[in-house]
Every structure is written in structure tokens, then in C-alpha cells.
Amino acid sequence: MAVVPPRGAEQRQQPCDPDAPTGLVLFEQRTPDVTRVLYHRAGSAGSRLDSDDVAAGSDCDARLLHLAGITPALSTTALDAVHAALLHARERRWRVSFDVNFRAKPWSADRAAAVLSPSAWRADVVIGSPDELDLVGGPDVLLAAGVAELVTKRGADGASLRTHDGHWTAPPHRVTVVDTVGAGDAFTAGYLSGLLDDLAPEERLARGNVTGAFAVMATGDWEGLPTRDELSLLALGDGVALR
Fold first, then answer.
1. Cβ contact 227:213 at 8 Å
2. Which of the four, 104, 107, 109, 143, has the lowest number of CB atoms within 10 Å?
3. Per-residue pLDDT tens digits for 40-97
4. Residues contacting residue 63 through CB under 8 Å, at least 6 positions apart
5. Which residues are catalytic?
């Protein structure tokens, strides 16, 4: 869950919980193409997130609230925090994005569908793989509920966008893959930054594909992510040296 404030807004220090451990996620590279993910989040400080934390951190004039399906899986209080944040965003008329981000280890698909669907239906932008979008009702149901943009992450096949006004696609980048973990979040970050920059639909998708490609070319979730000045590097071709 993240709030995107206006440019230049003051950044507040996030609260800490001295009585609970930091949540831990471990990645085990079993083969070049298969990564095993282990979660140690039960009872963590993050799982104690509640609606009071949202109230303390949302006193700002934000442009966008981004929610993801992992937070509601942490605990009932974390789910309450997501609902409170969504209500607060709607009252302030902030734009809301929701990444389904289903993970099978914390909970079942049926439980996730029941919990995540109401939040997805109230978002302006819903992002996920084809299976994840089906988990929260599918494209037709989401658009009928009032969702303005459905963004489908298709991995090696690129990405697509569907709205009430049309359908757009963007091809992937063929790159050397080092670590696929974090590619989806990187795509989402790129797409939403394009949305906040008022880019056209196909340009938002293209930026998301660029940031996703950068993510898989480096080890780690975020270590390979580009700066704005680096977004055009993939278009330079092979063997280019910037001197």
C-alpha cells in the first residue's frame, strides 16, 4: 500500500513497532528459471498494520493511492487498513490503483477472491495477470463495476490495456534474464508513473514494459530499476557504450 503525494511534498517518517519483528521474504533460486519464495510474515510488524496507521499517514493532498493484494493477506487488521485507505482516498477523490498480486502461500484462491474483489471493483485502475483479473471477477465484471482501466501483465508477451473506450497492447523487450522476481511490481511502477505523467495509453504500457525489462536484467526486486534518464537505454540496441 502506497500513497503518491504531489511533487515536492514533505515525506513523513513511517511509524515503527518495537514489539514485533520485521517481516522476511526469502528467495531461493532452484533453477535458472524457477525461484522458490518463502514468507516469514506472521506476527511481523507489517502484519500489525491497522486503520489507525492509515489515519496517521494519509493527511496529505495525494495524487494516487496504490493498493496490492498482499497486504490484506497479512492479517484482519491489515485488511481493515486497506479498507480505511480506500475509503479515505474516495473521500478525497484521489485516483486509486489496485494490483491483484495474488500469492497462493498466504491464502487460498477462494479466500483471496472473496476478500480482494470488493477492493478491486472500487479502484480506478486494476492491474494483474489474466488469471489474477479472473480471480476478482474478470474484465467484463470489473468494467461494469466502474473500473476505468484494466491492465494485463502478460510477461514475455508484453502487456495490454482495456478501457471503456478501447484496447491497446505493447510488445515486450527481448533481454537477458537474470532474475524474474520483482518484474511485475516494476511493470506496475512504470505504468503508474506514466499515468501520473499523463502519457497516452500505449506509452504507459511501453514504460511499464521497459521498467519490467530492467528489473529482470539484475538480481533482486528493485536493484536494476532505471532512473527517468535511463528509460530510453533499451532503444539504443546491442553493444552500445555510453562514454
1. no
2. 104
3. 888 888 899 999 988 877 778 889 999 999 999 999 999 999 999 999 999 999 999 9
4. 4, 5, 6, 94, 95, 196
5. 185
